[in-house]
Design a protein that fits this description.
single chain; 239 residues; alpha/beta; Rossmann fold; 5-stranded parallel β-sheet; 5-stranded antiparallel β-sheet; 30% helix; elongated
Amino acid sequence: MLNCIIIDDERAAIDVLSNYVNRLPQLNLLATFTSPVEALELIRTQSVDLAFVDIRMPELSGIELMKLAGSRCRFIITTAYEEYALEGYQYHNIDYLVKPVPFERFVRAIDKTQSILRRSTESERPGTADDYVFIKTESRIQKIELNDILFVEGLGNYVTVHTTRGKFVSLLNVKDLEEALSPDLFLRVHRSYIISLGKIDFVEGNQIFLDNETSIPLGDTYRNQLWAALDKKIITGRK
């Protein structure tokens, strides 16, 4: 169960999210706040797994709150201003929800949160940082080195894993692979594609070009996540 809090200066927005949280048994609502300063104090003194945070608030903005909280908990941004999403991804932000938030979109954000936290926990356990996976193909169990993977392509009820050694087809779906692969190494960039971040050559417009000259489409839904991942690696000059 995830201990969560809600931070928003609008009581109506808190009421909506509180209702959503209480409908999901995997969530435990610790508290709600209209004051981000009071919320920060709780984050610093208690065990909070997840915070839903608005961006535009008096006293302290959501971005400033995330900076001050550091790695103490994960955040989901709730805002009417989509342009803040990219900046938020730098501060342990898992997802962003644009108001008004549909319940179905809220559930998807929680599923994503649980998947990320589960993989993070597993990667911290001794002996679990494997550099390979096994997938079941039509005729055998195939070992695939993670460093060999270029991209994963979803085609209905099966996927093709494209590697430097060839293609491997399995009766899995893209979500299965997304949950199994490390988010530090792989990123979903389209409803039908997962790419290896280390195999990106360049990004131009709505296309991602890999080292083997393959072009992968960039979906609008996944654009901010890609920019956030690349932003961590971009070298910038002094301002």
